Amino acid sequence: LILKCLFQYYNDYGDIIKATLGKAREINKTNCARTMALSLTLLFKDLQRDGIRVNRQSEEFISLKELAKRFALSFGLDAVKNREAITALHREGILFSVNPLENIEDPTGPPPNLPFLEILTEFTNKLLKQDKRVV
After folding, report:
1. Which of 36, 70, 104, 118 lies 20 to 30 Å from 95 when distance is taken between CA atoms?
2. Which of 13, 30, 9 is nearest to 75 (CA)?
3. Nearest to 85, CA basis, from 26, 18, 10, 12
C-alpha cells in the first residue's frame, strides 16, 4: 500500500516510490494496474468518512485526482503495450463505482462511489479506441 501514500510523501520519497512502481510494472503490468486501482479506491473510501458523500471540490478529492494523473502518466505513451493493464484498471474502477451493495442506507438511490468515475477519467486517454467501447 505504498502507492496509497505516494502523493502525501512524494516530495520526500518520490524517487523510491517511482522506482518501486516501475519494478512492479516490470514484473506484471496488469497486477500493478490493479494495485493502483485498489490504492485509489482505498483513498476514495477514506474520503467517505462516517458515510458522508464525497465533496468533489475538496482538497482531498483534488489530491486523489492528481495521484490518479501521476499513475496514468507512469504508463507512458505506448497504449498498445499497456492495453491489458489499462483495461483491467478501468474494469476494477467501474465495478467499484457502480457497486449497488455499497449503498446500504438507500438501496434505491445512486451508488455512493459514483464520483470515483471522475478519478477514473484520468486514465481514459490511455485506452485504445476499441477498448473504450468494450469498457
Report:
1. 70
2. 30
3. 26
> Which run of H or E residues covers position 27?
helix 10-27
The mean per-residue pLDDT over the stretch 25-34 comes to 92
pTM: 0.83
- Give residue 81's identity as a one-letter amino acid code: K
Inter-residue contact 30 to 84 (CB < 8 Å): yes
* 3-class secondary structure, 135: coil
Residue 101's pLDDT band, with cuts at 50, 70 and 90, is low
Q: Which residues contact 89 (CB under 8 A, 6 or more apart)?
A: 33, 34, 36, 37, 123
The answer to whether 96 touches 43, Cβ cutoff 8 Å, is no
The CA-atom distances, in angstroms, between 89 and each of 9, 34, 52 are: 23, 5, 26
